[in-house]
Amino acid sequence: MKVYLVKRLLQIIPTLLGITLVTFMIIQLAPGNPAFLKLRMAGEGQVGETAISKQIIEQTRQLYGLDKPLPIQYLLWVKRVLTFDFGTSYKDHRKVIEKIAERLPVTLQLNIISMLLVYLIAIPCGVFSATHSGSASDRLLTLFFFLLYSLPGFWVAVLLIMFLGGGELWDVFPIYGVSSVGSESWPFPARLLDRLWHLVLPVFCLTYGSLAYLSRLTRASLLEVIREDYVRTARAKGLSERIVIFKHAFRNALLPIVTLLAFLLPAMFGGSVIIESIFSIPGMGQLAFEAVLSRDYPVIMAITTISALLTLAGLLLGDILYAALDPRIKLE
Amino acid sequence: MERKHHINWLPMDFDQRHQDTKSYWRTVWRHFLRKRMAVAGLWFTLFLFGVAILAPLLANDRPLLARHRGQWMWPVFSNVETLDSQSWKDLRKGLRFVLQTDIGAPGDFAIWPPVPYSPTEHHLLECWASPNATHWFGTDDSGRDVLSRMIHGARISLSVGFVAVGIALAIGISLGALAGYFGGWIDHVISRAIEILLTIPTFFLIIAIIAFLPPSIYNIMVVIGLTGWTGVARFVRAEFLKLRQLDFIKASRALGASDTRIILVHMLPNAMAPVLVSAVFGIAGAILTESSLSFLGFGVPPPTPSWGDILSQSRDYIEFAWWLTVFPGVAIFMSITAYNLVGEGLRDAMDPKLFR
User: Fold this and answer.
1) What sign results for the dihedral spanned by CA atoms A157, A159, A162, A163?
2) What's the pTM value of the predicted model, to 2 decimals?
3) What ipTM does this complex have?
């Protein structure tokens, strides 16, 4: 186990360098880069004409040292990433890292709530489907989750606004922001309720896709395990079905489900970009979207890098959990 | 001979019966046909293909065929803009399929497409028309026919889906094959590259790159392809790791076959099954990504019609223009579902347990 952990931690180093390399390549696309300017000129002939874009180009050039030779530029970038120094936003000249720290809690709230819901609902549904495999309710559930999985998130968001948020039909849920106007002075329980009420629609949009995916995965994984010999043995020695499923089968079926946690994180962040901008939620996703719209390069770079690092941490956590749960891993 | 050779060495538990009489892919196809939902999905994807290929014939502001003063004309294909100083649009009276005989001289006629509107022609007097006999799916905020835009939007969806997945396959197969075949440091480097791409939130990476590039459909295809190859690479790598242990690979190496020959002729055909499945799922994913990008305003530049673009308009007129939300949304949903159904049907049909 220790050897595995050390090996796994060492593997992070090249991945970290790779992440900085990819983000570095994105900087190379930024204006101020001669190759990019040439491309732009040939394509449109617009960039570099107005005073503002000249200013942006000058700022970008200075911030990322784009006039220095490439290897130096890269080393400077790595140094920035390691010290979490991402410069100041072009838009309001505030420190990028402060802006992100301000936005992160809302996004974390959204994603943690929806992650909890995903696991709390999907696993029982998947287990039910697998233990009732082939029955009418299993087939119905499977079809339902299949369709849910294929629904585009932004369309669901628009439909929900249309039907529940004051569009064509009812006006039940708020569709703007995370709290009502003037709620700062409310007592805490009222504020909490208000916050939850605002989160219902966005959390639903973030949840259902992963929920469908995880439920299908649980079903498939458990069905595979149920066919194993040791499950048959457990049944043969007269254990109750409950113990067979939960003590013998489910534990082994859990492995792929746990590691999925790490992969759901980046997917959810991508979803946050769309959902937060539709529901005007002041989180990382909306910040990312606004930054891209206003070409706020320092913010774009910081968000890409930080979310990659967070995901890397998630991946690592998943692998460690896997090793902790599966004794076979330790042997390697 | 060549084919049979592979089949004998498929890494799956093959039943002797199947080996003798039927090829692997024929068996897969037979299993696939048993899945009614998957077959329905396949039919729908073929239907979409038809719509995309025939789009200019299905929705156009010029007649398909016209006869004028004894001359045959194919206005859809030729650049004949006018007829006796009258433009085709003036002659059009919302007719479809039927012969229109009251144009020009006696004996002249025209046959119009089922949707006699082009995706880009706008009528400012007919904005936000709800679905009616003239505009079956209504019109948008500049009076463009939604159905016509959707028919032409199918082209964008499908071409983005196929080209992006083609790029992803090319990268994924080559890198996966290299990693799985050679192992060692090559495998390490490629595996790290895969891990790096997995950690960066793909969708945000795509918008970040798209925002830096000039707006064009080709950039979208390339960026989706460049960020979407990791799944394929992992499958191919895993298959190759399994295959290279098998005796027939050792045998061909002993016979002096080159690495290229072993990879291309002996291993790759045997690793195609999971690749095909993930390619089909990949098309669904690429269609979703393209429509999300267009929805957010990073997609194909206007006035190119795209399903996501119609949906992005719907946000502003959500109080009344339900047709702008419902029709393109259903189109995106149904095409994603269809590709997912085909992908799942294929995966199940290839499940080695079925061959037992």
Assistant:
1) negative
2) 0.84
3) 0.81
